[in-house]
Write a structure and sequence with these properties.
CATH superfamily of one domain: P-loop containing nucleotide triphosphate hydrolases
CATH class of one domain: Alpha Beta
Number of helices: 13
Shape: elongated
Radius of gyration: 22 Å
Distance between the termini: 25 Å
Length: 376
Amino acid sequence: MFSFFKKKPKPEVVPLPESSAPAELVQIERLETPVESAADLTSDAEPTAVVSAVPAIKAKVETEAAAEIIPAPVAAEQKRSWLSRLKTGLSKTSSNLSILFVGAKIDDDLYEELESALLVSDAGVEATHFLLNTLKKKVKEDKLTEATQVKAALRSLLIDLLSPLQKPLVLDQHQPLVMMIAGVNGAGKTTTIGKLAKHLQAHKQSVLLAAGDTFRAAAREQLTIWGERNNVTVISQESGDPAAVAFDAVHSAQARGTNVVMVDTAGRLPTQLHLMDELKKIKRVIGKGMATAPHEILLVIDGNTGQNALAQVKAFDDALGLTGLVITKLDGTAKGGVLAAIATTRAIPVYFIGVGEQIEDLQPFDAAEFVDALLS
């Protein structure tokens, strides 16, 4: 597997031995200090949760969660495979762009067709105008006369535009590293968490999952399946306050010496203000469990949503202060240009992109690889 995490240099921390027993689902029974709601956890008191192991739930869940996890091939083979899947996944977007430069003349018609192709790909008006204006200027200054030269110039401009989004997820800077995962319904949050857990383990990180989606039973069951397959403990509660689940997961990870905690949250629309307020409360309560947490707040976005993704980024960023994005379901989409729109608005790092259901279909975002797939 090729590396996509960056570790902060520091003395090696030896994690506690991992049990060889099957993964457990940990269910919250009580708190030593009774609380009526997670809002009570925002007081000066910081109750310590008491947990007990119960049999893991096995249920029929989404197909992608139940898929067999395939061992990662050697780095070179995986890299070639990933680039091939990325190119195939973005083929609907790239077909509108790459065909423009086949035997084309450098004239107004080409620029008009390029403008239409960028808008159709959901690059957005701002990014499209920026790219076109800068491209025209470059063609004039460099005296480009061949379509291949213009295509190469567009490639360079796109890479420059998207490169600020490329950023590695830094490990070992906190113990534990607490990650909060948010997004709208159906974006793929729970599945993304399961895939990230497997990748983190491959980088010698112990992981604990918090089933903070307490409203949808299938979400807890789905997360439990991933936990079982990865031999990862899942903190869960059949019903109750998701903030309490997150709080307890942080304390459990501290006690176990776990490297990473990932907190799943229920899907919600940005217009559901009461649910957005709940996310703020979860973040606040996590901070009661660990003063510097959450360290990463990731928004999972369905790549097929196109320009609607911008509204999601703005709303969740305003509410939580996002540190990164994960763009899923880019396979088969004609809206791959949305990353250009994101780059010209909020410019929040895109840690990972997904082009399929398998574990290896979620990989770090690389601007050059992405642009090459778009223009192939």
